[in-house]
Amino acid sequence: MIKNYKVVIVDNSKCVTGFIEMLLQDMGFENIHIFFDAEDAINEIIKAPPDLVIVDYDLSVINGLALLALVRRVYPEVKAIMTISYAGELRAVTNDFYIVEKGVNFSKYLYECIRKIFTNDILPENFYLLS
Q1: Whole-number Å distance between alpha carbons of 106 and 104
Q2: How far is Cα 15 from Cα 26, in angstroms, rounded to an integer?
C-alpha cells in the first residue's frame, strides 16, 4: 500500500518541502520525513532506508548529488528524484534518478515521476522533466 512507503524529502526551503509534502499526502503517502539539511537526512536514512528520496540539488554543506551518492552507496535500490531551480545546474548526470526543474510545471512533473516510480511504469534513465 502506498501509504506505507517511506519518503524522505531534503530541501532547505520550508515552502518547497511543504508543497512536496502536500502533494505526497494527496497521493496517499503517510510515512513522510522532511529534512532541511543533508546531515539530518543521512542520520535518518542510515536508521532505515526510504523507498524514495526527493532531494534538492542546492543544499548547504554538501549538494544533492553528493547526498544521493552516499545514499546509493549504502542502499543502491533506493529510488530518487532530484529537484533543481534551473536546468543549467546539472550539465551531465550519469546516475539513475529523475530530475525535475522547479518551474511552472513542477507539481505536474513531480507527480508524474512519483507515480511512475511506484507503478513500475519506468521513465528512461536520466529523464529530465523541465518546465
Answers
A1: 6
A2: 17
Question: Which is nearest to 73 in space by CA: 98, 99, 54, 45?
Answer: 45
**What's 47's domain CATH number?**
3.40.50.2300
65-78: per-residue pLDDT in tens?
899 999 989 999 99
The grid cell for 27 is 497521493
Provide the CA 76 distance to its chain's centre, in angstroms: 15
pTM of the entire structure? Answer: 0.86
User: How far are the Cα atoms of 19, 26, 61, 81, 109 from residue 123, in angstroms, in the given order?
Assistant: 23, 22, 30, 12, 12
- The parent domain of residue 120 ranges over 2-129
Q: How does the average pLDDT of the chain come out, rounded?
A: 84
**Cα–Cα dist 71/74, whole Å:** 6
Within 13 A of 1's CA, how many CA atoms are on the CB side?
Answer: 6
